[in-house]
Amino acid sequence: MSPAKDVAAKATPLFAAYRVAARALAPLAWRKVSAKLRAYGLPEARVRERLGHASLPRPQGRLMWFHAASVGESLSILKLVRRLGELDPGLEFLITSGTPTSAELIEKRMPPRCRHQFPPLDHPAYVRRFLSHWRPDLAVLVESELWPNLIVETRKAGAPLILLNARLSPKSVASWQKHHRTATYLLAQFAQFITQNQETADNLRAIGAHADRIRPGSNLKALAAPPPVDADLLTQTQAALSGRAVWTASSTHRGEEEPVIAAHQELLRSHPDLCLILIPRHPERGDEVEALITEAGLTCARRSRGEMPSAQSQIYLADTLGETGTWYAACPLVFLGGSLLDIGGHNPFEPSHHGCAVTTGPGYFNFAETYGDMLAEGAATEIADAPGLAQQIGCWLDDPKTLEVTRTAARTFISRQSDLLDQTADLLLAQLPK
After folding, report:
1. What whole-number distance in Å separates Cα of residue 271 and Cα of residue 268?
2. Running DSSP on this structure, what letter comes out for residue 113?
3. DSSP 165-186
4. Residues 210 and 254 in one domain
5. Range scoring the smallest mean pLDDT among 144-153, 161-170, 182-191, 264-273
6. Which residues does this entry assign to the site Transition state stabilizer (predicted)?
């Protein structure tokens, strides 16, 4: 059955009710998101992109549109976009993402013939305004960005829809199963689903996706280019550290810095020269994190003030954007945050690309399959709390051979993913209307 026939056959009362609610709640949603974007210092033309008003002209020729939620999803597609551009030199690209942080990072790493916009809120009129301007030839939604009006209006506008790197949490699956007819209707709009794993493929089929449109794939984040390294900054950092032992806690959230700092205090007992590079997930929390460091009686230097770690700096607070790759290059021992609390974890492929040994807390459910493989292969380790974190980092500091075994396993794990990039690109190009 074609997507067009599915549209006519399966619209549901629940979807109609959602459209009414989306219209009613749009003013409240607009006030909230516009305030956040203005607070970030964005010009009004960019803020109004959330109403579907484009701030850039549409390029000539065929346009492939990628929509991702935030930083991780957005950065995961850049290598793929670059490869698509190499395979089809006439193809243009639009990337939309909802956060100013993702916009800033995308624009720093933008592939050729690519531009960024914020997506319209999920109001039918805003979505139609967006689509009327951009007229995408193919729309690619990344991971779990299933906004009903965006999906239906895009298909009505004639663009084939792809769900790329599809991921569904058990909670999402259970929710969709309660509304099976509406799930089937929305999933019928898609021409193809390219999933992260077989489990997601099975879940999509269970909630109503057409089996012949599902293609199990790999986690797109494994195919992404590693975070860039600023060679000058790396040289400066290494000179400032002057051979000191160092470890990194990356992408930490509120409630995680305290156990990380406690682990560092424990490590300082046996490694008094040790430096911790602490990278909060949200750099704007720099003042808050610095206060925690001070309360713990430790000293720090702060990247956002242009400081380098001195001999007296026990913690280097790296509260900036876009420099994580440099910190990974400076230090092969990494704790990856978002995992000591029930947050879901963060992308372990990024430090692994740099040959880092990675340890994680137990709350990595967003990367359960990836961490399952990495833990089984010795490419990562799992800890439960501050004492466990101190013990694992201490083991790597004291036993370089064990550290090197973990780093080698991480490099091996990453190398197996690289041949999937062209396979994914070919699947997308095959869906592009001729």
Report:
1. 5
2. T
3. EE---HHHHHHHHHTHHHHHHH
4. no
5. 161-170
6. 143, 221
Catalytic residues: 73
Three-state secondary structure call for residue 280: strand
Domain holding 195, by residue range, is 3-223+419-431
C-alpha to C-alpha distances, 101 to 42, 97, 125, nearest whole angstrom: 11, 9, 26
Chain Cα centroid distance, residue 61: 29
Task: Please report, rounded to a whole number, the percentage of residues in the chain having pLDDT higher than 70.
Answer: 97
* pLDDT tens track for 219-232: 777 777 788 899 99
* Whether the model pTM is above 0.90: no
- Verify that 265 and 331 share a domain, yes or no: yes
Query: 110-144 b/e with 16+ CB inside 10 Å = b?
Result: bbebbbbbbbbbbbbbbbbbbbeebebbbbbbbbb
Q: Kindly report the CATH number assigned to the domain that includes residue 192.
A: 3.40.50.11720
Question: In whole numbers, what is the pLDDT of the chain averaged over residues?
Answer: 92
Spatial contact of 327 and 310, defined as CB atoms under 8 Å apart: no
H-run or E-run covering 252 = strand 246-252
Measured distance CA(140)–CA(315) in Å, rounded: 41
Lowest mean pLDDT among 151-165, 172-186, 330-344: 172-186
Under a CB-based contact definition with an 8 Å cutoff, are residues 100 and 129 in contact?
Answer: no
- Can you tell me the distance from the alpha carbon of 337 to that of 343, in angstroms, rounded to the nearest whole number? 9
Q: Read off the DSSP letter of residue 77.
A: T
Q: What distance in Å separates the CA atoms of residue 297 and residue 305, rounded to the nearest whole number?
A: 20
- Both 35 and 61 in one domain: the answer is yes
Residue 181, Cβ density class (10 Å: 0-12 exposed, 13-18 middle, ≥19 buried):
middle
Q: Environment class of residue 314 by beta-carbon count within 10 Å: exposed (0-12), middle (13-18) or buried (19+)?
A: buried
Neighbours of 189 (CB within 10 A): 23
Output the pLDDT for position 418: 65
Q: Do 212 and 172 share a domain, yes or no?
A: yes
